[in-house]
Design a protein that fits this description.
With 447 residues, the protein is mainly alpha-helical. The protein has helices at 13-21, 33-36, 41-57, 69-79, 93-108, 138-148, 186-197, 200-203, 205-208, 221-226, 231-236, 244-263, 288-296, 302-314, 319-332, 337-347, 353-364, 379-386, 391-396, 429-444; strands at residues 2-3, 28-31, 63-66, 84-87, 112-115.
């Protein structure tokens, strides 16, 4: 059983298939340098902790190896004379190529890569229009996704006998590299989910999920990223309650972006709407000071800065704030979305390629949906609306702790607003909004 984005025992069809086929199963995880070296310290730490939790649930039988999966998986299969390597499907651009290469290597020794299941309730490519083409707008995809439906969660394997003599490599020690956002592992994810189900946050999710000043979200994005919890498990627990439809919708967004990326893999790092590739952007080397201010949370806009500092401290950021800081980079600083997407992937524990790239493209107006470029988020009004008491800002921007209530969002309007070292604004939003729209209209007017 080759674990990847499914670090759990429950609701794991690939593990069930392995257990049903053989008397003994080797549980394997390969630390792939191609993925490990691109991940930031927060994500590496969580992965290491999640693997420790998985190993404990397997009574210490998890085999961890470092190296190229094409080589490692074949070597382990030969070492135990396994006919099949079971794994879930990976629909990402790199994962698909890697799995094809692993399958070819296994075939060379008359072995087979047997794949079943995926990290999604509905696998990419299953939800299509009547002509077989993919959806590039969320609302019709959501309707079709609901109509398609999904299977019930898979049960735990009836029996699971594990091969134990096989040696593995030590897990990397990432314990001092970052501050954990949430506890890792399947048990912790299930406990977090059950606590949310019984909380008032569930019933009020639809109306309060955009409030970063409150503990109003499920905090499941990290568990879903690593497969500590499957979305089917979440969906099976939802009903027609007031907050459940909103949470279901957020899961659909995750599956929509995975479907878009699967259909257009180049959109991971390139424009989904290529005509906007020619839009005028500022040179990041000439705007290094402004880019650094955004990265460090020192733009002079408190709501933006609180989000960027939360990212650096916790390896996570509230979703509403992600949209605001992304809009600020692209439409106030006029820098390309890929710069921000790379920064997020370096620092986010829940950094998911499809979600991240297409979330950024949605904000930048270069991706899915009709005319999103006109959505220019005002960093002040967004803070006043979604952090009305200023508690979120004060939590991450100590230079503004002395300002009370909503005044924290406009410190420049108060005589003592900047006395504790908070920076002045790097740009004026109203002027930059007009400039962003000018550049957009200019590129749209080109033949």
């Amino acid at each position: 059983m080759w674990f990847r984005r499914d670090l759990r025992l429950a609701d794991n069809p690939a593990l069930n298939a392995a257990a049903a086929e053989a008397d003994e199963v080797v549980p394997l995880f390969v630390i792939d340098p191609a993925l490990w070296n691109r991940a930031g310290a927060p994500r590496r730490r969580h992965l290491a902790e999640s693997l420790r939790a998985l190993d404990a649930s397997l009574d210490g039988a998890l085999v961890v190896r470092h190296g190229n999966p094409v080589e490692v998986v074949s070597e382990v299969a030969q070492a135990v004379d396994a006919d099949h390597v079971h794994a879930a499907f990976d629909f990402g651009p790199y994962g698909s190529r890697r799995d094809s290469a692993v399958a070819a290597r296994l075939n060379d020794s008359e072995r087979e890569l047997a794949q079943v299941g995926s990290p999604y309730a509905v696998a990419p490519g299953r939800v299509t229009k009547t002509d077989g083409s993919r959806y590039l707008v969320f609302t019709p995809f959501h309707r079709a996704w609901l109509a398609h439906g999904w299977r019930a969660p898979a049960q735990l394997p009836g029996r699971l006998s594990l091969v134990r003599p096989l040696t593995g490599d030590a897990l990397p020690d990432e314990s001092e590299r970052s501050t954990p956002a949430v506890a890792a592992g399947e048990s912790a994810a299930l406990e977090r989910w059950r606590a949310f189900l019984s909380s008032s946050a569930r019933t009020r999710y639809g109306e309060q999920r955009d409030r970063p000043d409150r503990d109003a979200t499920s905090h499941l994005s990290i568990a879903l990223k690593f497969g500590e919890l499957h979305p089917r498990t979440v969906l099976a627990d939802l009903d027609d309650g007031p907050g459940d439809a909103a949470l279901q919708r957020q899961l659909a967004w995750r599956e929509f972006y995975a479907d878009v990326l699967h259909g257009k893999p180049a959109s991971a790092r390139d424009y989904l709407r290529p005509e906007l590739r020619e839009m005028e952007h500022d040179d990041p080397s000439r705007e290094a000071t402004r880019l650094a201010a955004w990265q460090q949370g020192r733009t002079g806009y408190p709501f933006v800065d609180a989000g960027m500092r939360q990212l650096r401290v916790e390896g996570w950021m509230h979703n509403r704030v992600r949209m605001v800081v992304a809009s600020f980079l692209v439409k106030d600083l006029h820098l390309e979305w890929m710069l921000g997407a790379r920064w997020f992937m370096q620092h986010l524990i829940d950094g998911d390629l499809a979600n991240n790239s297409h979330g950024w493209q949605w904000v930048a107006g270069t991706g899915t949906d009709a005319a999103p470029y006109y959505r220019v988020f005002n960093p002040v009004s967004q803070g006043l609306r979604f952090d009305p008491g200023g508690d979120y800002v004060r939590r991450y921007v100590p230079e503004l702790e002395h300002l009370v209530g909503a005044s924290v969002h406009e410190p420049w309007n108060h005589p003592d607003g900047l006395v504790h070292g908070y920076p002045t604004r790097v740009v004026q939003h109203d002027a930059e909004r007009k400039e962003a729209l000018r550049r957009y209209h200019e590129v749209r007017a080109r033949p």
